[in-house]
Design a protein that fits this description.
It is a single chain. The protein has 296 residues and is of the alpha/beta class. It has nine helices and twelve strands. Strands 8-7-9-10-11-12 form a six-stranded mixed sheet, sandwiched between helices. A four-stranded mixed sheet has the order 4-3-6-5. Helix 1 (62-72) crosses helix 7 (204-217), helix 7 (204-217) runs parallel beside helix 8 (235-243) and helix 8 (235-243) runs parallel beside helix 9 (257-266). It is flat and about 60 Å long. The N and C termini lie far apart (50 Å).
């Protein structure tokens, strides 16, 4: 990939005046304070000059976000299919947005093969009859298929103590969330439960794409380890991980039934409701000693 060019940045947090009610000793009129809020910015992902999607995201680590999205959504097969990434801040009046709400365009130059496939997908989706599910235009457009994750000899080491060790270290690394709240985190943990990378965003999918993009840019997608997230384990998160060969995912909240089903189909190890001292193993994964979990 060529070097990433960044536009004039928008701040990931916004400072606002608020009035707090209900605190001990507070007057009936409330207490005037300053508060930090998570920024939520329209981010357009543009491939070879053609806008593909607009996401609401935290304006930070956007190059990793765009690359992670392109890989986890199957637009690119490999990081080498991306020739370069450049982000541009777009003033509200030029973007057709309400006054004071600027947007960001992230431009990706991708291989001709990837772009032709993307154009074909856009034509296919445009011609389908709408079913009204999750914002797509047909059941097939949900794209729930994923290739099986490669068997990992170390998968059994992603056990409860390791998962809880990783999650215990997450709050201290959630810098934006500590100040503003309402921000999710996706982190990469080693087989010892140590966190090496923590990415934050108002959207859990965006946070994961930022993490996956960060790993991809560094050539680390195949290293032993697992993903930790501050959210529930929805099927989209499981599918994104499986598509990039991530073998294990652990989340603070519970997964959905479809999330578990996709994990089982992909052979991905899925932990949920990981709140010390307990955690729930919903899918064992694929590797030595992993046994299918059956209903009781």
């Amino acid at each position: 990939m060529s070097p990433v060019a960044e536009s004039e940045a928008l701040a990931p947090l916004s400072r606002r005046g608020v009035r707090v009610f209900g605190e001990a000793g507070a007057p009936a009129s409330g207490l005037a304070r300053g508060d930090s809020l998570a920024a939520e910015v329209p981010v357009a992902l543009v491939f070879n000059g053609v806008s593909h999607a607009v996401m609401m995201a935290t304006p930070q680590d956007l190059a990793s976000f765009a690359l992670g999205f392109a890989l986890s959504e199957g637009i690119l097969d490999h990081v080498r299919d991306c020739r370069g990434i450049e982000s541009r801040r777009i003033a509200s009046r030029d973007a057709g947005l309400p006054e004071g709400i600027d947007g960001i365009e992230v431009h990706l130059e991708i291989s001709a093969r990837s772009f032709e496939r993307l154009k074909g997908r856009r034509r296919s989706v445009a011609g389908r009859t709408g079913c009204g599910v999750c914002g797509v235009e047909s059941f097939a457009a949900l794209d729930l298929q994923t290739s099986p994750v490669a068997r990992r000899g170390w998968i059994g080491r992603v056990d409860l103590p390791t998962v809880l060790r990783a999650l215990a270290g997450l709050p201290a690394r959630q810098v934006l969330n500590a100040e503003a709240g309402a921000i999710h985190a996706a982190a990469w943990a080693t087989l010892g439960g140590e966190l090496t990378d923590v990415l934050e965003d108002v959207g859990r999918h965006n946070a994961l794409d930022k993490l996956l993009g960060t790993l991809a840019r560094a050539g680390r997608l195949s290293e032993p380890g697992f993903v930790v997230m501050s959210s529930r384990g929805s099927h989209e998160l499981v599918r994104k991980c499986a598509r990039l060969g991530i073998a294990a995912l652990a989340t603070v909240s519970a997964p959905t039934a479809m999330g578990v089903q996709v994990a089982q189909l992909a052979g991905l190890r899925l932990w949920g409701l990981c709140r010390a001292p307990r955690g729930v193993l919903y899918a064992a994964g694929s590797g030595p000693g992993c046994q299918e979990l059956k209903p009781v």
